[in-house]
Specification:
With 573 residues, the chain is of the alpha/beta class. The chain has an 8-stranded mixed sheet with strand order 7-6-5-3-4-8-9-19, sandwiched between helices. A 5-stranded mixed sheet has the order 12-13-14-15-16. Among the domains are: 33-211, Rossmann fold; 390-468, Luciferase, Domain 3 (Luciferase, domain 3); 473-572, GMP Synthetase, Chain A, domain 3, CATH 3.30.300. The protein is 31% helix and 24% strand. The relative contact order is 0.10.
Length: 573
Amino acid sequence: MKIFNKVINKIKYKHPWEKYYEKGERNIEVPNVSLYEHLKEKNKNNMNSIAINYFNKKMTFNNFFNEINLCAKALRSQGIRPGDVVSICMANTPEAVISFYAVNKIGAIANMIHPLSAEEEIKNALISTKSVLLIAINLSYAKIKKIVNDTNVYKTIIVSPGDSMPMILKIGYYVTLGRKVETPKKSENNLFWNDFISRGRNYTEKVLAKTTKDQPAVILHSGGTTGIPKNIVLTNGNINAIAKQAEIVFKDITTSDSVLAVLPLFHCFGLVVCVHGPLCLGASTILVPQFDAQRFDKLITKYKPTFIPGVPTLFEALLTNKHMNNVDLSFVKYVISGGDSLSEIKNAEVNKFLKSHNCKRNIIQGYGMTETTGPVSFGACGADVLGSVGIPLPGNEIKIESLETKEEMPYGEVGEICISGPTVMLGYLENEKETNDILEKDAKGKIWVHTGDLGYMRDDGVIFFTSRLKRMLIVSGYNVYPSHIEEVIMRHEAVLNCGVIGIPHPYKVQVPKAYIVLNNGLKVTNKIKNDIKEYCEKNLAKYMLPKEYVFRESLPKTMIGKVDYRELEKENK
């Protein structure tokens, strides 16, 4: 009977995963509009529902769209026009979300920067994208002031995490932290958020730009195929396609639901899964500007989110938080893991934890990358198999390709995971070579992303991730490329050679460890050690910093003279 069903399915469906979806759900139609217009259309009947929850200060969709409009007018009043790039260097605050949609409304492009990035990384992100205006969290200003004059940015808008907090919390924030944060003197080049917004009140010209699905909407940053930072250009259609897929996968999400937005907006997973997708379903997003593993239980019990997306480190925090012992999770509808693979053992542990806390759902894994606008496969519609990353989302295709012959592999055999669909990026900004290295057009004109990840597909369409081809670490859900860290360290005048590997970490999963050889004649001193560490702190984002620095007279080499990373990894084991 089983063999008979397989034969029937092969005749009935073009791809094996299609059987998990209803006939009208296997493909999606992406609207030919901007992110802002799609969001507003989806919520035209939800204007009194809650869109944003920030420290229990709630904003309805009606107020949210009013704030977006004011911000859009303020941007136009400061000279921003369609096609301009506006950088947003923010934590998860209402101003960050409002700015993102306001930039989109006027037809400009949002460049999302990690606020913990090093000075040089922020500078490069501004220069390479030709950004002309910067909206930044005040905590980043000390770095920004040193580099902004070397860029095309003519105006910086400073936002405090306390700006949108309830009054009591705002006072508390100022007393404990806010008064210690360096901020600029108000000037024509440096405006505070409220002063910036007030400039939009008197702007009377039209601000809504006519935008299509194929136009660039956002620039995100990742390592590309070589590990050197790349600017990934995503279109309106890419991100709206995720929202359309969410309508099919999360049919039971309504205006009474809420998502815990712990994942940051400058991360693709956070932007599409915690913000745009849920908001397009009418759910509210609970913005968390800084995640504290020790207080995870308080977030859950205070806000009772029905939708909890996270990276594996977040679920480690869930399992190890002793205050979660008696917490009832019966209100949770979805628990989703992405950003890195969750081992089968850990997957089972989380499921056991959820069941013991009255949650009726298992954790569901997904798979994707920034170049595919986040998730491309998901344990949806009954395809939640322990240890798997699910089936392709509606409209997506996934094939497993041989590394040698480039032909499609039979079911069950490991090869490179390749992806096609409406969420495939436009490309790397002004980097044709890297774009061509990862995107390939087949004989039928279909664009495929070569992920550099290995996996296999079962004959029922369920996909399993096995390992990575390229040298890449996942640190708390962020892609970290050892080659980039090595490049930075080797620019230091005292360094002759360097090798970076990943070592296990109880909370972050992996952290970098740097092996360093100094130039001939130099001795390892505390001064040199501190100089190199300070150099890294200035030129690398906080999450990229090596956890350990080991100084050696030489590094193991391969037969062709390259650093033998496998030998370094063996030494650590």
